[in-house]
């Protein structure tokens, strides 16, 4: 599961691997956000346990996920305002098994313009606008609160 995460005025991304019980963090600044990642490492296994069937739930051992940081090139994202684009491109590289060196300051400006254009194009797509106007959200089902151990 890929998750973009805002930490203050900066964006990072993470990949939660339910099989290996780990979280990979991608940060173009190369800094570690241990304080921000700890709640995820602690709560995700507990959430997984709660959604299991009652038989599986009793057998499932809750263990905190490990957090690791993907190595990033030194002084990446010198402008520091494009971290959102880096987040999307790091997710894309990880998902496709591509090397992170493809995400660099030399090509990120072009990617930023491409994403902006794609968003503008979608916002002006008459078919999409019509579908969104006709959209009705599904009714929510309320369940009693579940206490996490």
From TrEMBL:
Domain of life: Eukaryota
Keyword annotations: Hydrolase, Protease
Every Ubiquitin-like protease family profile domain range: 1-94
GO BP terms in the entry: proteolysis
Family listed: Belongs to the peptidase C48 family.
InterPro entries tied to this protein: Papain-like_cys_pep_sf, Peptidase_C48_C
Protein name: Ubiquitin-like protease family profile domain-containing protein
UniProt cross-references to PROSITE patterns, sorted A to Z: ULP_PROTEASE (PS50600)
Pfam families associated with the record: Peptidase_C48
Keyword Hydrolase among UniProt keywords: yes
GO molecular function: cysteine-type peptidase activity
């Amino acid at each position: 599961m890929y998750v973009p995460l805002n930490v203050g005025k900066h964006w990072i991304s993470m990949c939660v691997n339910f099989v290996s019980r780990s979280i990979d963090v991608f940060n173009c600044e190369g800094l570690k956000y241990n304080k921000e990642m700890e709640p995820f490492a602690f709560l995700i296994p507990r959430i997984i346990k709660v959604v299991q069937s009652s038989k599986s739930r009793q057998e499932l051992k809750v263990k905190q996920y490990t957090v690791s940081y993907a190595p990033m090139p030194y002084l990446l994202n010198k402008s520091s305002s494009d971290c959102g684009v880096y987040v999307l491109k790091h997710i894309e590289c990880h998902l496709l098994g591509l090397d992170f060196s493809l995400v660099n300051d030399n090509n990120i400006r072009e990617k930023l313009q491409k994403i902006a254009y794609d968003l503008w194009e979608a916002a002006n797509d008459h078919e999409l606008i019509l579908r969104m106007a006709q959209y009705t959200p599904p009714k929510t089902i309320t369940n009693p609160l579940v206490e996490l151990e």
